[in-house]
Voltage-gated potassium channel (Xylanibacter ruminicola), 271 residues
Amino acid sequence: MKKPHWLEKEKLYNIMFESDTRLGRMFDIALIIAISLSILISFVETVPSLARTFKLVLEILEYALTFFFTLEYIARVYCSPKPRDYVLSFFGVIDLLSILPPYLSYFLPNARYMILLRSFRFIRIFRIFKLFSFINEGYLLMRSLNKSLTKIAVYFLFVLILDICLGTLMYMVESGQPNTQFTDLATSVYWAIVTMTTVGYGDITPITAIGRLLSAFVMLLGYTIIAVPTGIVTANIIDEVKDKPKDGRCPRCGDKVRDKDRYCSHCGEKL
């Protein structure tokens, strides 16, 4: 007797999206090996001597891997309970981007190196080992960053305006000097950004006493400014840790939890 259509999709879903079964674990391991091989090919192809020596082998492997990833993406869309949600999800976008470059390479040769985006998919390795403690911390960090985005965006705008002002001020101080490196406002703003972030490439340096004094001020200012985003995110992480599910549901998976539960019985989220 032929199995119902929905049962076949459910079995395929368990293999491709879960790792609780033997086939699911085998598929995830095979996928990680394929991703590793694909990234290795991308690196080898950038070395001219190796690319010439193994050109035929690399091309065959690339076509085979592209075919595998294409089938995988189609299968994931097919067996997903909500295909649209998968396609628009983070991993859905990454999966699509990982198969597009080889096809785009027929029209844009350099586009094929976007294939390195497959490295993001290594995150799926956590499903194999069930490292709930690490996964939970990852979700905690993501939620904290989402809550901090508005504050960080405002802070980023403030820092950008400050860099423009400092770069303009340095341009006014240094532009009239002989052999100056501050030849235009764009270069001066670039110097301000590099100096304030304490990167300090040293490719552009002031030559006047006032310019050096301003540089020292910007360096010290950079140390104090860098700490602000860390404080914003840390405050939200503390809030997330203190928060308890108020509607009787897990904040991560939405499954019902009891008041005395410390962990969600469905996904292992710490409550």
Summary: The domain at 134-242 is CATH 1.10.287.70 (Helix Hairpins).
